[in-house]
Write a structure and sequence with these properties.
This protein is 80% helix and 0% strand. By secondary structure, it is mostly helical. It has one domain. The longest helix has 46 residues.
């Protein structure tokens, strides 16, 4: 029986069993079925950093089922975070809520709906039992995120049960604080020197921190924060382009949907925007996982490993 050839001359020492060796085995099986004259150039191409990134990112997209999971996260975020924000607005009172909504710079349609929900409902509309139900039901988003990140990092089992409940609540509250905080940063940096540059820097830091804290919470320390940092940085960079696009597109889409379909159109528009953000979050998490587990120089830097020793040292 012919042995399956390895991709020759991979840099560094032979990697430990895991996703990298699985990738090598798949490449080797593909090369074995090709004509011999094509094996060497294709093996060289497979060793290149860009080729590895593309191949492993594509495999990650298929493994995570990114389109389905992005839609799940978007729907869960809409049905979990929005009620929590309304509940928090009812807790602080209509006056303070109105001030925060004005400072957040929400589109006019969203602002009016949020203010109306707090004014007509108020804390009395929730009650103690209703407030608890809102908080408990909101943890569905955290559980969906746990399943998504477990698929990204190939964690066999994410934390579950009563002991993990505090992680779910912390994740939901972190997301709510992130959504409110990033909207208020423009007001907070208004009086700082170079307000626009300060806002960009603080938003980038907030995006990076959120993309690291959320998987760290839902996975229960299964993945070290150092490895999560790569995906956090990529997410922060992606949001530098996605957020300005949303500021242009979202108000136009909200007004158009409200004129045509009313409140339900506004809801569908927000779910569509949340889908885009969720897709970006999972895509950057996959890219971060691929970079963190790569055997190249960047992967070693992320993991904090020393370069492999050479014979000429």
């Amino acid at each position: 029986m012919t042995a399956v050839p390895r991709v020759p001359n991979l840099p560094g020492p032979p990697p430990a069993p895991g996703p990298d060796t699985d990738w090598e085995a798949r490449v080797a099986r593909v090369l074995q079925g090709l004509p011999r004259r094509l094996q060497r150039p294709l093996a060289w191409l497979a060793r290149q950093w860009v080729s590895r990134m593309l191949a492993r990112t594509t495999a990650g997209l298929v493994r995570v089922q990114i389109f389905d999971r992005s839609m799940t996260l978007a729907a869960q975020a809409f049905t979990s975070i929005i009620p929590v924000l309304i509940l928090l607005g009812a807790l602080v009172g209509p006056g303070e809520s109105n001030k925060m909504v004005e400072r957040a710079g929400l589109p006019e349609v969203a602002r009016s709906l949020f203010v109306t929900a707090i004014r007509d409902g108020g804390l009395g509309a929730f009650g103690v039992v209703g407030s608890l139900l809102v908080l408990v039901s909101s943890t569905g988003l955290a559980r969906a995120m746990a399943r998504a990140y477990a698929a990204v990092w190939e964690v066999r089992q994410a934390p579950s049960g009563p002991r993990a409940s505090w992680r779910w609540f912390a994740t939901v509250l972190t997301l709510a604080a992130y959504m409110v905080g990033t909207r208020l940063l423009g007001w907070l940096t208004h009086d700082l020197p170079l307000p626009d540059l300060s806002l960009v820097f603080l938003l980038f830091a907030a995006d990076c921190a959120a993309a690291v804290v959320m998987p760290w919470l839902v996975l229960g320390n299964a993945v070290p924060p150092r490895l999560l940092a790569a995906g956090g940085v990529v997410f922060g960079l992606a949001m530098l382009f996605l957020r300005p696009a949303g500021r242009v597109f979202l108000p136009i889409a909200l007004h158009s949907s409200a004129d045509r379909y009313g409140t339900i159109g506004v809801a569908f528009t927000y779910i569509g925007w949340l889908y885009v953000v969720s897709f970006c979050l999972l895509l950057t998490a996959i890219l971060g996982q691929v970079v963190a587990q790569d055997e190249g120089a960047l992967g070693r830097l992320v993991r904090g490993e020393r370069p492999p020793a050479t014979d000429g040292r």
